[in-house]
Task: structure prediction
Amino acid sequence: MKLTTFDEFRAQFRDFYHSVKTGHENTKKQSHGGHGIDHDITVAMIAVKISDDERIGQKAWCAAMLHSVDRVVGASDIKDTMMKHAEYLKHFFSQNEIDEIIEAAFRHSERNQIDQSETQITLMDADRLANMQSAVIIRSGQFRPDIPVFDFKYLSGAIDPLSTYEDPKSVIDDLRLCIINYIPQLRNKEAKHLGNIYAEKLNAYIRSIEDENEYFGLTNIEI
Result:
C-alpha cells in the first residue's frame, strides 16, 4: 500500500517515529531554534509530496525525521544518535538504504553538490520549502528577538549590506535572504513550483510592510 498521509507513515515506522520523538522530548538543549519535531514532520511530508519516486519519498521521510538531531544532541553525538534511531528501520530498508538515509540527514545543511543522493536532494529541497512557508514569518521573529523587525533605511526592497544569511540585521532581511538563498538551490521540479509560490507569498508580505510605511513617509529615513 502506498503511504500518503502522516498517520500512515507514523504507523508504518511506529518505533522509529517514537524513538525520534522521545529524543526531542528528552533533549537537554535549551532551544531548538524552530527545529522541533513539528518541523521534522513538516519537512517529512513535503519530501513525500515533491518526490516522484515512492521509495525515495519513504527514505526522504525518514531522513527528514532525523534531520534535526543536530539541534537535539551535541556535535560529537549526532551520527551515533541517528544510527540508534535508524535501528528501527531494519525491517523496511536494506543497510545500504539506511546508510543513505543517515547520510542524507547528516549532510542536509550543505549547499548543492554533485555527490548527493536523490534522498538527500529531496530532503534538502523539502527543508528549504518548509523554511519558506508562511510560518517562517512568525518563527523568524520568535527565534530572533534581539534584532529589529525592520530598519526604516531599508524599506524599498533593499537589504542592509551588513545582513547575511547567517547574521541578518532585521527580521525582514531574514525573510528576504531565505528567498534569495533557497530559490536558486531547489532542484526537484515540484519543489521549484512550490518555492515560487512560497516566495511570492513572502514577497507580498514584505511589500505590505513597505507600502504601509511608505504611506506615512517612513521609508528610507534615519532615526
DSSP finds ten helices and no strands in the chain. The chain has a mean pLDDT of 94. The radius of gyration is 19 Å. The longest helix spans residues 189-215.
